[in-house]
Amino acid sequence: MRQRRRFMPFLLSAAALTAGVGVAPTTSGAEPANPWLEQRVLNMAHSGGEHEAPMNTMYAFQRAVALGSDMLELDVQSTADGQVVVIHDATVDETTDGTGRVVDMTLDEVKELDAAYWFVPGRSAVHGLDDTAYPLRGARHGSLKVEGHKPKDFTVPTLREVLKAFPTTPINIEIKGTSDADTASFIRTGTLLADLLTKSGRTDLIVGSFNDAALADFHARAPQVPMSAARNAMLGYFLAGVKPPAGTVAFQIPVTFAGIPVATRAFVQRAHADGYAVHVWFSGSAPDDAATYDAMIDTCADGIMPAKPTLLESILDERGIERPGTPGVDPCEAG
């Protein structure tokens, strides 16, 4: 596999989405010269590829980049002492050997955790199986040696560490909170993130969030960082063609919702005509399998966020699909 330069989902209301079936209004006047339309077709390893490696760990990110992923997708929460850490859930219970909310823990406490503790190959984090089901359990504390990797590669990393480790790999960052209703927690993490990214000077990133208010606050603090549309902004565009907020460069969408196709060629064409890239995520919206990956490539999406980046990479290579900086077959010209 060749190495190249190397990108959140939103939640949709079933009633609103159903109401929008068949509606395809467009809007014009999107911000010109969107460079993300030239970065395609991206293998955007979701959480580093959570079916192939412990999600949101340095081990997963290192592995994804080595196999050829063009961009890393990850999630951020913030600790009690104001550090931005890479973890999906508000608590550490699902993926680590610890318990408790991230926001109630210090960075030192989070760093002690084994983020590979519940990892089962092909299934991500699964609790309650026989010990033999967890091949990387203990790597964090050195009781298991993994060639080419250090114990720290299996804990919860800080975003600062990820940015430093992958200075030329584009990264897609989702701002998380303690719960959907706790907007203040999203804004807290977004504020810390804006400060970190401003100091880093990096703009080869896309920041998104489920929470529209948090994303608006983030943009006010770090207007130089590109964004994907949050939930309400995405719904407004999907249903009525309403232009998303300034700074938006991409729509990041599920394959389906409640059985309704969302990632379609018609939607991608409309977004492209209005100047926006489209990235597709799975996360229960459709199977992470070869048939679905092929179908999403055929929609002419600019990026795909797989839980199985090795599988997607093999399909992209076998089909000779164009990649960032690498000419190839343009899915937009097919069909």
Descriptive notes:
By secondary structure, the chain is an alpha/beta fold. It has one domain (14-333): Phosphatidylinositol (PI) phosphodiesterase (TIM Barrel). The protein has helices at 14-19, 58-67, 107-111, 159-165, 183-200, 212-221, 231-240, 265-273, 290-298, 309-319, and strands at 42-46, 71-78, 84-86, 119-120, 124-125, 171-175, 205-209, 227-228, 248-254, 256-257, 260-261, 277-281, 303-305. The strands form three sheets. Strands 1, 2, 3, 6, 7, 8, 9, 12 and 13 form a nine-stranded mixed beta sheet that branches. The chain has a two-stranded antiparallel sheet with strand order 4-5. Strands 10-11 form a two-stranded antiparallel ribbon. Strand 10 (256-257) and strand 11 (260-261) form a beta hairpin. Helix 5 (183-200) runs parallel beside helix 6 and helix 9 (290-298) packs across helix 10. The protein is globular and about 50 Å long.
Topology:
Elements: H1 14-19, E1 42-46, H2 58-67, E2 71-78, E3 84-86, H3 107-111, E4 119-120, E5 124-125, H4 159-165, E6 171-175, H5 183-200, E7 205-209, H6 212-221, E8 227-228, H7 231-240, E9 248-254, E10 256-257, E11 260-261, H8 265-273, E12 277-281, H9 290-298, E13 303-305, H10 309-319
Parallel strand pairs: 1-2, 1-13, 2-6, 6-7, 8-9, 9-12, 12-13
Antiparallel strand pairs: 2-3, 4-5, 10-11
Helix pairs in contact: 5-6, 9-10
Strand elements, count? 13
The average pLDDT is: 91
Largest sheet: 9 strands, mixed
Roughly how many Å is the radius of gyration? 19 Å
Overall shape: it is: globular
Instruction: Specify the CATH architecture.
Output: Alpha-Beta Barrel
The helix count comes to 10
Low-confidence stretches: 1-30
Strand coverage percent: 15-25%
Structural class, judged by helices and strands? alpha/beta
The CATH H-level homologous superfamily: Phosphatidylinositol (PI) phosphodiesterase
CATH classification, class level: Alpha Beta
Helix content: 25-40%
The domain tally reads: 1
Indicate the CATH topology: TIM Barrel
| Strand and helix order | HEHEEHEEHEHEHEHEEEHEHEH
Distance between the termini: 27 Å
